[in-house]
Amino acid sequence: MKTQNIFAICLLAVTLTTSCKKYLTIPLPVDKISGSSAFTNDKSVAAQISHILGSMAGSQAFDGESIGFLAAEYSDELTNYSLKADNVAFYNNTVSNNLTGKYWTSFYTYIYDCNLAIEGINASTSVINYKNQWIGEALFLRAFLHFSLTNLYGDVPLVTSSDFRVNNVLGRTPKAEVYKQVIADLLQAQSLLSTDYRNAAGTVTTSRGRPNKMAATALLARVYLYAGEWAKAEEQANALISSTATYELPAPPQTFLAASRETIWSFTVETNASEPYVREFRIYYNNAPAVLLPPATVNSLGIYAALSPSLISAFESTDQRLTRWASKTTTSPVPPALPQTYYFVSKYKSSVNGIENIVMLRLGEQYLIRAEARAQQNNLPGAQSDINSLRSRAGLTGTPASDKTEVLAAIAKERRTELFTEHGHRFFDLKRTGTVDAVMSVAAPLKGGIWTSQKQIWPIPAADIFANPNLTQAPGYN
């Protein structure tokens, strides 16, 4: 975590990085962005937070060949058709630290930027009208990044300062302690942020591209669930589900549209990006035809992967999540070759800018969080009701699950068919429920790999271990 030079780089990037344009909206001249002057008014402070949001949105950590995509290949959600060596390594569970370390590096860079912003705003003696919003956004992002890091890399350094002399000698912090800080950050963010969505000028907007109080609430519900704090997870999820004036479950075709009322927080796709649409469209779907005529192949379509047979079998035949969120393509080969059927992920269907954004948090997950929290507290009718809300949206009848074991199994199944390929949910679920070894010991050989338990933790950059004697590599990696 070499952060001593990042501040100057990031401040300059605020004015130079075009991918942040929509989040920034209020450009500042280079000579006004230096040292404490970066925190003298709302425009300059908004620029700092906008830069973090824009950098995260413009990266491939959350879109395209993202954590969600790679974790889906790494687990049991996808069948890989890409010839790229990196994708094959993830699919075969043979990753090295140079493949997985990029997220570690970029996430700690973002955390450093968040810490700079929090410290700078708090230390400023200037009048900052929307101070609470800017600090709340930075706290939310710091919490989100730490949560993501610990679910990818296990115990990770907990970084809450911009002092590189402290950060560069931090060792791994136990996951429980990381969660404690994540929860504290989110509770503070809740107290600072408005339930309204606001833009970089601090004014109310219909765009859900910046985190608000309800985004903090949604992430807090998830963290409480992962930490096994069932009553608190239910309480937070209930706050979202009961906010019916703002959030609702639309029909499956509308779920991932930019104007969807299911979205709690999303990243805005910039018009001047190299691909001015959600990049998942290209790698997963790319307007795949219903019938694939020879000599066309999956590779010629430019699609990287399709749903795995085990994931396809998890869907009931009339489940609209399969028919609406996946595109069925069948080959028409020359006899005696037999037809093959593929299901390509098509949650995002548009190559037109502004139609869809990168959905980060949505209401469907909150129903699943509340269902699991209720089941763990033996409120089985409440859990069944939440399951059935999603099943009804998918065109299915109510769950037949009755006792606690069956209801928890039904929730796990619904999480798989509702959240597939989204932001690592399946991989994280397997790990947090202690089922990863049982599932992957079966799935890995089918993908041409071998599973061992230490592979559930991804390796970190060797350079950071070399530079910091207090850091250790994940077990089983060099």
Automatic annotation (TrEMBL):
Query: What do the Gene Ontology cellular component annotations say?
Result: cell outer membrane
UniProt lists the family membership as follows: Belongs to the SusD family.
Q: Which domain of life is it from?
A: Bacteria
List residues of the SusD-like N-terminal domain: 88-225
Report domain RagB/SusD positions: 342-477
Gene3D superfamilies with a match to the protein in the record: 1.25.40.390
UniProt xrefs under SUPFAM superfamilies? TPR-like
Q: Which CDD domains match?
A: SusD
Q: Which Pfam family would be a valid example here?
A: SusD_RagB
Q: What is its main location?
A: membrane
Which compartments is it annotated to reside in?
Cell outer membrane
Is Chaperone included in the keywords of this UniProt record? no
Q: Which organism is it from?
A: Pedobacter steynii
Its protein name is SusD family protein
Q: Print the keywords alphabetically.
A: Cell outer membrane, Membrane, Signal
Q: Can the keyword Membrane be found in this entry's annotation? A: yes
